[in-house]
Amino acid sequence: MEHELEKSGKYDRLERVRGITELADIHYIRQQDRNGLGEAVMYAEDHIGGEPFALLLGDNFIQSETPPIAQLIETAEEYGESVVALEEIPWENVSSYGIADVEDTAGESYPVRDFVEKPAREDAPSNLAIVGRYVFTPEIFDHLRAIEPAPDGEIELTDAMRRLDRVRGRAVDGDRFHIGNVPDWLEANIQMALRHDDGELFETVRQTLREELED
Ligand code: G1P
Question: Would you say 108 and 76 are in contact if contact means Cβ atoms under 8 Å apart?
């Protein structure tokens, strides 16, 4: 990307990209087969070096003043435990998410007793959903290695999380878009363009919608 930007003389964009890539060593690994989120996380073990780490699922996009992962890191550092972002969702959607079983939700963060992956509505212990932001202590890798694949053959991250001695939940501030399907992805793009009225896409999207809807 840097090469292409340089070749086409887009120096301001090149500067922006370089600023980002200099902040971190970026490694990219493609999961060969659909063996589940748990297996995908296992690919990261060699890069993590026995330290706590953050996991962000790209199909949950959260707009917030303070990045949700920073909110989780704060709690993880305070308690020295794994922490997961939880959000109260409509009960009819519980079967699309990992769901937390908690005693109560008093306080900024609270202990989670158990998790269940994509339960039927009548079996769900709550409507508190895992929304794709986690901070894990490195023990999670031992549990990922120890669990059996789920009936569909996938290694479920949630099954490994159930085996952690301690894990806390925290509601994070922010506006979340679940962009794993086309209508929601499209809505998120339109909303984001319209929310940034100083952004380069604001006028294009506003004009297009106005013209199309007027017809
Ligand atoms: C994954 C997790 C699930 C979590 C969800 C958030 O499921 O397994 O626990 O609630 O992400 O989007 P997936 O959406 O990959 O099926």
Answer: no
| Cα 98 to ligand 1 centroid, rounded to whole Å | 6
Q: Whose CA is nearest to atom 3 of ligand 1?
A: 98
* Contact assessment for residue 59 and residue 132, using Cβ atoms and an 8 Å cutoff: yes
Residues 109 and 62 reside in one and the same domain: yes
pLDDT digits (tens, 9 = 90+) for 30-50: 999 999 999 999 999 999 989
Residues with CB under 6 A from ligand 1: 37, 57, 59-60, 97-98, 117, 129-132, 157-158, 180
Mutate-to-test residue for ligand 1 from 60, 88, 93, 130, highest number of ligand atoms within 8 A of CB: 130
Question: What is the extent of the structural domain holding 73?
Answer: 31-176
Amino acid found at 2: E
Residues 123, 95 share a domain = yes
Both 134 and 156 in one domain: the answer is yes
Confidence check: pLDDT of 21 > 90? no
**What domain count does the chain have?**
2
Adjacent-strand bridge partners of 63: 175
